[in-house]
Amino acid sequence: MPETQYDRILLKMGGEALADASGSGIDPLRAKEVAETIAAVHRLGVQVAVVIGAGNLWRGSEGVRLGMEQPTADHMGMVGTVMNALALQDALERQGVVTRVQTAIEMRMVAEPYIRLRAIRHLEKGRVVIFGGGTGNPYFTTDTAGALRAMEVGADVLIKATKVDGVYDDDPQINPDAKRFDRLTYIEALNMRLRFMDSTAISLCMENNLPIVVLSLWQPKSVKRLVLGESVGTQIGDK
């Protein structure tokens, strides 16, 4: 088995990763593609934890814009992340990867409650663990949940998987002259107000010296190549 750069990773992705071509709902074929990406890394012996958003099902910011109270809108989003987590679990199990879903909001009929030491034990036993329900609290994004869970389970890196191949100074899908960064410090990312991840999550990683890598989920074998030591995406760290 080839040598890997990381022993344990947390993969953070938006709910749109599971969406159909319109960007909404859950497409089983897309879930299968994501599961294949995770399974390829898992087969290298890397311990994999996952946090997934719910933008394909519900955006709390839209509910707030229309007059909904933010705690209610955010709790709806947390439930949406559990739906996505269950869909991804099913796709991974079909790939032969034993998977557990843990949620910050208890719903014992469909998933385990989040228990840090149990999550670590699952990872040590070679199971993929998907964390649903965000942090369990309103006003926090799933980016922050990803950073928090990564540190709680002792991940070596937080991988933010997006639709683009790194961090840019502008939206590359709109501005063809947008500049891509190979490396950034946490402070640079915060000061430049780059929107690849919310500032709370970046600050949390900075305070605990957790490296962040932003890459494209859809670039062939991008996560696997990163784990094997290739330079992929944009790396964010202390220097």
Describe the structure in your own words.
By secondary structure, this protein is of the alpha/beta class. It has a domain at 8-159 and 220-233: Acetylglutamate kinase-like (Carbamate kinase). The protein has eight helices and eleven strands. It has helices at residues 28-42, 60-65, 70-94, 116-124, 142-152, 186-191, 199-207, 222-227; strands at 8-13, 47-52, 99-103, 112-113, 128-132, 157-162, 167-168, 180-181, 183-185, 212-216, 234-237. It has a nine-stranded mixed beta sheet, with helices on both faces. The protein has a two-stranded antiparallel sheet with strand order 7-8. It is globular and about 50 Å long. The mean pLDDT is 95.
Give a quick precis of the structure:
The protein has helices at 28-42, 60-65, 70-94, 116-124, 142-152, 186-191, 199-207, 222-227; strands spanning 8-13, 47-52, 99-103, 112-113, 128-132, 157-162, 167-168, 180-181, 183-185, 212-216, 234-237. By secondary structure, it is an alpha/beta fold.
